[in-house]
Amino acid sequence: MEIRHLRYFIAVAEELNFTRAAERLKMAQPPLSQQIKELENELGTNLFRRTKRKVELTESGRVFLTEARHTLQQLQKGVEMTRLAARGKVGRLRVGFIGSAMDRYLIEIIQAYTSAFPEVTLSLKEMTSSQQLEAHQANRIDIGFMRTFICNENYESKIYSEEPLVAVLPEKHPLAEKGSISIKEIGNDPFIFFPRKYGSYFYDLLTNFFNRHGMSLNVVQEAIHMHTIVNLVATEIGVSVVPESVQNFQRPGIKYLYIKEETPDITLCYTWCKNNTSSVLKAFIKLISESSINN
């Protein structure tokens, strides 16, 4: 049995006239009658009751008509969904991200993507940079937003944004009312810092910056997430530095201050495995690279 047999049958069942059905199908009537007869032989039952005056569906024919219509509808839906999947319009996208990416940039990306691809199921997972690399290796995410730039035989990264550092101080700190400070002014303060094992690139970038200015940090507390660092600063146990976009996270008890010295560019990169051939992923990367929100 082929799909054309279903179309032939449905045409005859709806017209209840072989001549009209043949005209509708743009074919001759005798071959159509022969195809219906072969279909009935294959099914082992009569689908039509034929007389000289009329054609009627049998009970078996009525049941088969319902199923034949359903089958063609499902087939058409499958064809449409397959074409959409090939263009990245349906499917699933798993995105890893560092928490601070949500302070500005990732919100805009997700808004643009869900508007352009509403049928894609989007799964967002907050992770550190090192956790994202592990998730890539285990095929748990398709793309990740991290501070680490990676480009080798397995991964590809592109820079989405670059931003300077700002200092974050308790609001009762003696320097908190200043508009900007030198990094050396807080060189002797207790520091709240990011642990190296969760993002060596970001950690080394910051420590090298401090070392160039003759600073050896007194780290009294470590925290994985930028918002946790800011919240710990509010407890007055120390000071810290964070990417500029973290200023969008406002809470009582802290002040953000610009740093007078030129700070290293803190990058936000999007990274994916080169062997990931997902059409959904390709469409997401294309949207990021072409979007006007790209920085």
From TrEMBL:
Any one cellular component term from GO for this entry? protein-DNA complex
Q: Which UniProt keywords apply?
A: DNA-binding, Transcription, Transcription regulation
Give yes or no: UniProt keyword Transcription. yes
Task: Return the InterPro entries for the record.
Answer: LysR_HTH_N, LysR_subst-bd, WH-like_DNA-bd_sf, WH_DNA-bd_sf
Please indicate if the UniProt record lists Transcription regulation as a keyword. Answer: yes
Give an example GO molecular function. DNA-binding transcription factor activity
Q: Name one Pfam family in it.
A: HTH_1
State the SUPFAM superfamilies in the record: Periplasmic binding protein-like II, Winged helix' DNA-binding domain
Q: Which superkingdom?
A: Bacteria
Residues of the HTH lysR-type domain = 1-58
> Entry's PANTHER family?
HCA OPERON TRANSCRIPTIONAL ACTIVATOR HCAR, TRANSCRIPTIONAL DUAL REGULATOR HCAR-RELATED
Family stated for the protein in its record: Belongs to the LysR transcriptional regulatory family.
Please identify the protein, giving its name as recorded.
HTH lysR-type domain-containing protein
Q: What species does this protein belong to?
A: Bacillus gobiensis
Instruction: Supply the source organism's classification.
Output: Bacteria, Bacillati, Bacillota, Bacilli, Bacillales
